[in-house]
Amino acid sequence: MMKNRKIPYLSFDGIHDEIEEELIRAASDVIKSKWYIHGKSCLQFEKEYGSYSGSDYAVGVNSGLDGLIISLQCLNIRKGDEVLVASNAYIACWNAIARVGATIVPIEPSSRTYNIDINKIEERITSKTKAIMAVHLYGQMCDMDALINLAKKYQLSIIEDNAQSQGASYNHQKSSSIGQISSTSFYPGKNLGALGDAGIITTNNSELAEKAKKLRNYGSSVKYVNEVIGHNSRLDEMQAALLSVKLKYLDQWNAQRREIAQWYNERLGHEWAAIHPSNVCHVYCIQSEARNELQKHLNGHGVQTLIHYPIPPHLQQAYEHLNYKKGDFPIAERLAEQSLSLPIYPGLSESDIDYICDLILEFNSK
């Protein structure tokens, strides 16, 4: 009989404890600076993250969703245009497309990688298609070579959603540096998380960068002179300063996530794991036909899990006007019904993973 443990789905202890003094100093410096919106901390972090991601330009924004909306606007995507996106993507991706008035064209994912199924894209491209949103789910990048080839063939733009893949790479190129433009979320639970809401847009195109800077700041590049209708979506100094501290440790934390994922792989066997060894392991997902019962079993023994995501976007009330019904995107629906995300974060011990895996294997043997 195993003694119950308490293992939360996510804990910041293994991240923040070791750098607490650095974070406090950074926060104190911002308070003392008396400058709290788009000052030197923001400019510094933009420079650091641009360099880290291999992007020429980085534009801090208020959130990943705002970053996606502004990215679409930078590409002049609007009503009448179509944007291809994974049918199982997080709702923010669909919301961004809807916010600019464009048409959402859902593409089923691979049930192995959870990312958009490359083989199902071309048949959905029409004369109205303007962009592909490459959502790098759970820390693993999409097949960017195939996406680039399709984009070139049909003259499409690629927008990367890098919210869950900070630090991942594809053929030695960092995520968020391959498409025409990219948005990254720094929601606290991300691999690189702020202590509040924050995001960033990256691009290698100077014109897109300048447009993004205007759009995030009321449509203005000169104070009180508004060239376009913009947003109030600036990255604040406090979050930028804290993110600068944490960015230095991102590769270390990602390495720890990979190690934990490998422990899971070894103990559960690859048939359980929808994971690739090159990703940054933001989420470790397994699939079970008895998912709900398994989740209850784990919770009953002190292990917290989450479901990413329990309702696919096409079945959400917010998109009932699109007239999709159950069965329209069976792979997304099956993943929503069978996927279960296990704890994965710096600070988990190998003993913790043994405990979790023993519980899963015990359940599976019944």
Shape: globular
Strand tally is 13
Radius of gyration equals 21 Å
Largest sheet: 7 strands, mixed
| Secondary structural class | alpha/beta
Parts with pLDDT < 50 across at least 5 consecutive residues: none
- N/C terminus separation: 16 Å
Q: What portion of residues is helical?
A: 25-40%
* Order of strands across the main sheet: 1-9-8-5-4-2-3
**Strand/helix succession:** HHHEHEHEEHEEEEEHEEHHEHHEH
Mean pLDDT: 96
Q: Count helical runs.
A: 12
Query: Strand percentage, roughly?
Result: 5-15%
Organism: Portibacter lacus
Modified residues (N6-(pyridoxal phosphate)lysine): 190
GO molecular function: pyridoxal phosphate binding; transaminase activity
Keywords: Aminotransferase, Pyridoxal phosphate, Transferase
Supply the key terms.
seven-stranded mixed sheet; two-stranded antiparallel sheet; 366 residues; 12 helices; alpha/beta
